[in-house]
Amino acid sequence: MFIRNLFIRSWCIQTGIKNVLLKINYGLIVALMLPTSQSIAQSVVQSTGQQWTLQASVQQAMSASPELKKSMAEIDVRQTDINLSSLWPEPSIAFRIDNKLGQDDATGGYDLTDITISQPIPISRIKYQASAAEASLKAARFSRLYQSLQVQNRVSKVFFQLQLASAELALAEQQLQLADKLINQTEKNTKAVVVRYLTPLEKMRMTIIREEADQAASSAEGKYNESLSEFVKLLGIEVDNVTTVSELQPLVEMPDIKQLSVLQEHHVQLSSQQQQVLAAKHQIDVARNSQLVDPSIGLSWSRDTFPNGRDDVYAIMFNMQIPIGDRKNTAASKATYKASQQGIELALLKRELKINLHKSFTHLNHVVMQARDYKQKVLKPAQKMLDLTNRGFSSGELNILSLVDANNTYFAARLNYLQLLYQAWVELAEVKLFAGQMITDADTQSVSLLKGGV
């Protein structure tokens, strides 16, 4: 309902019809007080344009996310590393031109005297390089899924923030419209029956209340515009594409902590780190087999001068490095230390994920229970007190102070309740992040790559 009010207000400002906006606000306050009218108005709002839901927002953000595009490029890099890891070193060829033959037979001049072709032969490091590169590729694919989790978590928080800002704006407008309604009360109603006389002091007090409500509405509108700007930038859309957002509702279904713990065992961040540990272990074997120069085999052709004249000479050569120093063990030790560091990081990651999951779940459970109790014990009584006070003030039974206290109590309770709902949804997003639970399977490209490579 408040979104339609905001939409009409923007249209009125653009066309300069400010008086129409004021009249519409008076009519909308009555609709906000009636559940039946609110349901009908909500249907009208949804039919006027696209309503952004959490699912749709996440899918749109992931399709335009530069973070996911970057992680996809990283996968391509790792795939190229696999292709390079299985390639043999290129052969080499050497030519020798000198005047040896001319000196031998006293003819002078320079001749091609030697051609050597050499081919390095990697004995065992190729397979270890390929295994390390394959593990790195799998780690990159899991890392992309974790990046998807992070993007979904961020979009969720921004979406919930926009829902909260929208609800607070609607509440601020309701408070402003109610203040306008009270300050414009006359001494007689349409039936010429005296219902309430406002003294000058009471009118002055009501004017102050009205101005405070106007300031609150302006502040809420600014907060909504800021949240809307962040939302559209994150999704990569224009602000005109956002007409409505789904209403901020209480969290009804709580996740099961046991199922979350089981799901966390296969967390994509853990899987990525496990593949990095495996790649580091393969790097130990690579270090052991790559510190020495690869042995090479060569074929040589040369011409030389013999007693019977010039003739061709063919030779086969084998070249092998002699390990005198301790370079091989040093490189392997360095790779072993790195693998140990990766293993320690994996253990730390498991610990932190478990701590954060249980911490967020505990907070989530607390906020949900608090919201339920707050609604029953504070919000509903505040609503009833406001209705009774409004009637008592209109009939002259209660003074202005009672009305101000009832209004402040009710709208403060509504704000606190909205904050509790917002905190619950944000904490649920954190729980899903730490458990490794996707909000949507929009990242089908990465999922398909993962299934094909693991």
Describe this structure in words.
The chain has 454 residues and is α+β, with helices and mostly antiparallel strands. It has 2 domains: 1-48, no CATH class; 52-83 and 138-291 and 326-453, Outer membrane efflux proteins (OEP). Helices cover 70% and strands 9% of the residues. It has 13 helices and 6 strands. Strands 2-3-5-6 form a 4-stranded antiparallel sheet. It has a two-stranded parallel ribbon with strand order 1-4. A hairpin with a 2-residue loop joins strand 5 (296-306) and strand 6 (309-319). Helix 10 (268-290) packs antiparallel against helix 11. The longest helix is centred in the C-terminal third of the chain and has 68 residues, at 327-394. It is elongated. The relative contact order is 0.13. Residues 1-49, 186-190 and 444-454 have low confidence and may be disordered.
In short:
Helix content is 70%, strand content 9%. It has 13 helices and 6 strands. It folds into 2 domains: 1-48, no CATH class; 52-83 and 138-291 and 326-453, Up-down Bundle (Outer membrane efflux proteins (OEP)).
Overview features:
454 residues, alpha+beta, two-stranded parallel sheet, 70% helix, disordered C terminus
> Would you give the CATH topology of the largest domain?
Outer membrane efflux proteins (OEP)
- Cα end-to-end separation: 49 Å
Number of helices: 13
Q: How many independent structural domains?
A: 2
Uncertain runs: 1-49, 186-190, 444-454
